[in-house]
Amino acid sequence: xxxxQELLRELSSGCTEELLRRGLERRERxxxxxxxxxxxxxxxxxxxxxxxxxxxxxxxxxxxxxxxxQGRRQELDTELERVQGSLSSARDKTQYPGxxxxxxxxxxxxxxxxxxxxxxxxxxxxxxxxxxxxxEISRIDxxxxxxxxxxxxxxxxxxIAVPLDMHEAQHSGTFVSDYLWGLVPTEx
Length: 188
Hints:
About 0% of the residues are buried. This protein is mainly α. α1 runs antiparallel to α2, α2 crosses α3 and α4 packs antiparallel against α5. The chain has a 3-stranded antiparallel beta sheet with strand order 1-2-3. It is built from 6 helices and 3 strands, in the order αααααβββα. The longest helix has about 80 residues.
């Protein structure tokens, strides 16, 4: 509209050559602006498409992570149920030690007879007897798969289960012995 009005004004003034030259220059500027705008719009569209692709990829990765984490949660829930069952069973053993011994057979009385026999023969109880007696009274489930020099297990105390993990390089034998015997309840 502006261009039309300017052309009309120039035509009426009689300077058609000048008017035509200005009109062409203005048209050239407008064409240049149009091309720049189209180039920028193309760049913006390409940028948006690239950003959309990245967002889609992140979304798919997030969905895969969610599925992986849900699977892991199910595994952990199953493990938790198993451990709670073990803990419940261990608590039953500690709360009703007579029943647990009855299920295992003669238990400590048999060990005591064995001890008396050994004392008569040698005068001192063997290490095996001490280990078995300690196992009966300590409320510790030992991890027998631990590497040599490492003590692992779970102590089922009066309130909560406490994991044990000690290495002989970090603690003296006396400390380990005192610590483990300190876990034995005095009411046994």
